[in-house]
Structure formats: structure tokens, C-alpha cells
Amino acid sequence: MKLVTLFYLIDEFCKEYEPLWQQSLLDSGLRQRRRTSRLALSEILTIAIYFHLSGYRMFKWYYEQELLGSGFVASCFPKAVSYTRFLELMSEHVVPFGHCLLWLCSLSTKTGIQFIDSTSLVVCSNLRINRHKVFKDSAARGHTSEGWFFGFKLHIVVNDRGELLALRITPGNVSDTNKTVVTGLTKGLQGKLFGDKGYLSKELFAQLWEQGLHLITNIRRNMKQQLMPLWDKLMLRKRFIIETVNDHLKNNEQIEHSRHRSITNFSVNLLTGLIAYQLQPKKPHIRVPKVLLLEG
Q1: Model confidence over 24-41: pLDDT tens digits?
Q2: Which of 122, 127, 221, 244 is close enough to 151 for a disulfide, judged by CB 3.0 to 4.6 Å?
Q3: Which pLDDT tens digit goes with each residue over 222-255?
Q4: For the residues of 236-256, what is the DSSP string, one character each?
């Protein structure tokens, strides 16, 4: 996505959001005065999000070379502040980042075909767990098909177009079948929800069915075989789309790394990476034949 296009979309969001956000801060007493900044809210959000689209692997290199340099990006933000000051600005605007992501998720198309999965967000090597201090009170040890890890879990729901519909962040020891997490993720969704064997649960199936959502998973080898409609069987084979989305988020948007020095920096990096993915014009997607849609 081009920088100008990104700024236009973020600026349209900020025009409606910023007055409401400022008023809520004043009403709650969290902010007694409005300090003027050299950078507008839309500029702060754009700079932070564009990092995930720029190809840089470290934010400091990106900011010093692109914003404080003499290239095209620097010419678009002539009032750019120092690197350390911008880190402070990002930390102060975690709430707008979160609302921007929720706004983009609300714009996703609800096609009635949803895929659910979770992925680990490792914050340190297993050898350094006992010495780790940054996320000592918030992260936890968890287990995935790839083994044990220390960090968080990102639970997401996407449609057949690869668009994010909902997401949750939990400690690494939270189960995929946690009813509170899954029901919160799928609130307001209807149709069919496809997941892996980790979501196999009679209680969870019954609760989602009451919400108008049909949970479909494969069965384990030691379970009795059951008949399944052809459409559901074919869509289960296309569940790889959400695994592709997770891989895209980690490798392209860089939502996972072990260089965080605070929970706030972790949150900003995660939110901006998810926003950058949601704004991508081309996402992992699957083609659903019209015949199957009619049968489904």
C-alpha cells in the first residue's frame, strides 16, 4: 500500500474518532488540558503502521533512515520529532491504535464462512524464561503443536477473504476451547465456523449453536466416524487459509519478536501490525464455488 493512500484512510478515521476520544478523556478526568504536538494523531498512526509495510526489520532503523533522513517519507512528515520522543507518542496513543483496529475489523465482510485458530506470540527463548522480567506477570508458558513456549496467544477469526473479523490476546496457557474467549470472539457472527481438532468440544459446540453458529472440526482417530456434508468436508480442507494468515502476520507484519522492553511497546507493535495486515489490498483468500455456496 502506498504511503499517501495509507495516510488518507487513517486521516478519515481520525477526523471522526479524535474529537470523541479527546472529549472522553476530559469527561473522565484523565486529561485536564490538551497539549499541542508537532505531529497530528493521523501522522503518528500512519508512521507507526507504515513501518510494517516498509520492509524494515527494526523500527529504529526505519525511523532514523526514513523519517529523519532525506527521502520521500521524510518529506511527507517535515515536523517529525526525535526517535525517543516518537516512542513516547506511540505509548501515549495505544487506545487510538486499538480503536482503529476494531474499526477496520467492523468493516470486514461477514460472509457466513469463518475460520478460527490461535498462534503463539513468543516473547523470549525457553532458556531465558526464569530470567525474563518484562512480561513476568502477564505472559505464561503454553504449548502448541510446535512445542512449549513462553508468551501470549493470539486468537483470531477470519472470513474466506482473509479479513480479520475478531481477535483476542490471552496468556500462553489459555486453552483454545476456553468458552469465554471463543464466545467473545464469535459474538455477532452467524453461519459456519471451521476449526482444527483443538476446538473439539461438545460444550463449546452447544454454546455456539445457541448463538447461531455451527462449529465444524475434524474428529480424532479414536473417535467414531460420522457422516459430514460434502460442502463442510471441502471447506475443512481449506482451513489452511487461517494458518497462512498467521504466518503472514508473523513474517511480513512482524507481530512477534523478543526485543520488547515494556508491555506497552508490545501492544503497539501488535496493534500496528494487525492494522497493516487489515489494510493490505491483497490478502490470503480462498475461492468458494457458487455451487457450493448454494448447497451450503
Answers
A1: 766 666 555 556 678 999
A2: 122
A3: 667 777 788 888 888 888 999 999 999 999 999 9
A4: HHTTHHHHHHHHHHHHTS---
Beta-bridge partner residues of 292: none
Cβ neighbors of 39 (< 8 A, separation 6 or more) are 47, 77, 79, 80, 81, 86, 89
Question: Which amino acid, 4?
Answer: V
* φ, ψ of residue 157 in degrees (nearest 5): -130, 130
Q: Give the E-state strand segments of the chain in sequence order.
A: 113-122, 140-144, 147-159, 164-171, 191-194, 213-216
The three cell numbers locating residue 98:
486499538
Q: Which amino acid makes up residue 102?
A: L
Amino acid symbol at 78: P
C-alpha to C-alpha distance for 112 and 193, rounded to whole angstroms: 8
Phi, psi at residue 252, to the nearest 5°? -95, -45
According to DSSP, the residues that pair with 154 across neighbouring strands are: 119, 169
**What does pLDDT average to over the chain?**
88
Question: Phi and psi for 261 in degrees, rounded to 5?
Answer: -115, 0
Indicate the Cα dihedral angle 72, 73, 76, 80, nearest 10°: -130
What does the alpha-carbon distance between residue 151 and residue 213 come to, in Å, rounded to a whole number?
30
185, 166 contact by CB (below 8 A): yes
Residue 21: burial class (beta carbons within 10 Å; 0-12, 13-18, 19+): middle
Whole-number Cα distances in Å, 164 to 81, 117, 176, 221, 294: 32, 12, 18, 31, 24
The average pLDDT across 123-148 equals 90
User: End-to-end CA distance of the chain, in Å?
Assistant: 35
Looking at this protein, which amino acid is placed at residue 67? L
